[in-house]
Design brief:
The chain is α+β, with helices and mostly antiparallel strands. Helix content is 40%, strand content 13%. Strands 1-2-3-4 form a four-stranded mixed sheet, with helices on both faces.
Length: 129
């Protein structure tokens, strides 16, 4: 578990590089926002979460895997993570932030370019404040 990173993961870095190359400037660390977003674009009042499929219970093959040991613990942990994510996203939306989520599986292989292009297009379409 010590090797599991919570920041500066490969999917996060890919998203940040694409946003920067597109001219979208951002902050890291969440600025004290609910859920500690991975990327914050204050000028567009938008946040981006880069979720690992397994840790956040995505409905893809990687996210649907069930561990062989301590199954009850991990199932409960992932359920709590999902509830925490929903609460944080709701709080951000209520505060006027646009919330975008990028899943780890969307950044794998051939899907990567299309996912990043869609994310950049959606963020660039938001009005500057």
């Amino acid at each position: 578990m010590a090797r599991v990173r919570s920041k500066d993961t490969a999917p996060e870095i890919a998203v940040r590089q694409a946003l920067h190359a597109a001219g979208l400037r951002f902050r890291l660390g969440g600025l004290g926002l609910p859920g500690r977003p991975d990327v914050v674009l204050p000028a567009r009042r938008a946040v981006v979460f880069v979720h690992g499929c397994w840790w956040h219970g995505h409905n893809c093959p990687r996210g649907a895997r069930v561990p062989a040991t301590r199954t009850a613990y991990w199932t409960d942990k992932i359920t709590r993570n999902q509830a925490r994510d929903k609460a944080a996203q709701a709080a951000l939306r209520d505060a006027g932030w646009a919330v975008k989520i990028v899943w780890e599986c969307e950044l794998a292989g051939r899907k990567r370019a299309g996912t990043l292009e869609r994310l950049i297009a959606r963020l660039a379409a938001l009005p500057r404040r």
